[in-house]
Amino acid sequence: MELPLLILLTTQVLLPIFFLLWLWLPHPADRVGWLMRVVYGACYFAFIAVIGRWDFLSTVLAVVLPVTFAVSAALAYRRVRHRTWNRSPSLMRSHGFTAAMAVFFLALTARALSGYGYQDTAVDLTFPFASGEYYVGQGGSTTSINSHHADQSQRYALDIVALNGFGARAAGVMPDDLTDYVIYGREVKSPCTGVAISMHDGIDDNRIFETNTQEPAGNHIILACGTARVLLAHLRKGSIAIKGGELVTAGETLGRVGNSGNSSEPHLHMHAYLGGTLDYNAGEGVPMTFSGRFLVRGSTVTIP
Asked: Could you count the other beta carbons within 10 Å of the beta carbon of residue 272?
């Protein structure tokens, strides 16, 4: 089993099941025992709600699991409501570890939530897809929810996938066929009215789990959107529909999503930067908003 899949199943399936079962078994000796299990579980569910990649399984689970936990906690309380609050002579000895772990996950959640805002001046763009439901796999202003944030030019980069009717990005958790990914082949629209100052084509799509680190952006386009430059990367070979130096309008088709470059599965990578011009790694990354909305990991965008 691939390590990312193992981590995903552990953090977003096995541990949530553990916290649900732990509300009941073993039976809490008193109401403080019940309360500590609820607090610990609630902090963990808050953590995975913020940092989880729910598009791998289903975005529906991001809502269903916390609701299920809340209902289970209420039902579990009915079994201890007539018990004394505390039977232990030492709260610290009995519940100190549980409390410490709850604080730990609460701190991780707060750190991730700090990435929901930004300090720099943002460039407002048009969302680069037409009708459909889309999910942000990487995005935000902290590494907790955006793996690109440590890179100066990609600090506010986005990785975007599309969702099917079940709220998943693919037909399966990690299928081998590129066409099983909803975003694959989807038309990429220009996020602004500007000039296509650079592009590259001719790179084959990678197979799932393989990457091309020699040409990280793969087939890509760089647009001059006012003072900002916007990179649209990992496009499908032969799909780019414009030429270098051409004026494009917002919403115009530029190409199609592929899996070229440093990409392990189909998605659109985009980031905006100042300076650097044609070198998308040399500029200063700036936030992107879409109709004023700053997108982060877990954000969904529905285009009618």
From this structure: 29
